[in-house]
């Protein structure tokens, strides 16, 4: 097979530059490269079937890996939302994005741009990742146990 020194399209070259920059190749980029390789191969020495099948297997493996990563990201996001929801009614402290120390009772959640934030009375949103301390609100704990009557 001949060496590919010029793929012939700037789209292919840009895709290859993106791969070098990010360190990973998408299935679309891989297909572009495979197509360019097939178009530019030596007709006297075409790619063997087993080589083509190996590359197709790599494409399927890449797609499966990407699906797995997407599913794990969704699972992680769901777990973060569940953890944040369990903080509702509890007292938390931590640093907001603007550097302000936030201390107070969690009243709810706000999810924006794949990020879970706590709504704390009287303060800006507190990212769940920035929570430094969690304590049980004594009044809420008494109401739940029935001791407050």
Detailed description of the structure:
The protein contains 4 helices and 5 strands; from the N terminus they run H-H-H-E-E-E-E-E-H. It is an alpha+beta fold and 149 residues long. It folds into 2 domains: 10-79; 86-145, SH3 type barrels, CATH 2.30.30. A 5-stranded antiparallel β-sheet has the order 4-3-2-1-5, with helices on one face. A hairpin with a 5-residue loop joins strand 3 (115-120) and strand 4 (126-127). Helix 1 (10-22) crosses helix 2 and helix 2 (27-39) runs antiparallel to helix 3. The chain is rod-shaped, with a radius of gyration of 27 Å. The model is unreliable at 1-21 (pLDDT under 50).
Helix content: 40-55%
Shape estimate: rod-shaped
**Strand segment count:** 5
Biggest sheet: strand arrangement: 4-3-2-1-5
Radius of gyration: 27 Å
- The percentage of residues in β strands lies in 15-25%
Kindly, what is the distance between the CA atoms of the first and last residues, rounded to a whole number of angstroms? 84 Å
By secondary-structure content and strand pairing, the structural class works out as alpha+beta
Could you state the order of secondary-structure elements as H and E? HHHEEEEEH
Q: Can you tell me the number of structural domains?
A: 2
How would you characterize the largest beta sheet? Answer: 5 strands, antiparallel
Unreliable spans:
1-21
Notable characteristics:
149 residues; SH3 type barrels; 4 helices
Show the helix and strand layout.
Layout: H1 10-22, H2 27-39, H3 49-85, E1 91-95, E2 101-112, E3 115-120, E4 126-127, E5 131-135, H4 138-145
Antiparallel strand pairs: 1-2, 1-5, 2-3, 3-4
Helix pairs in contact: 1-2, 2-3
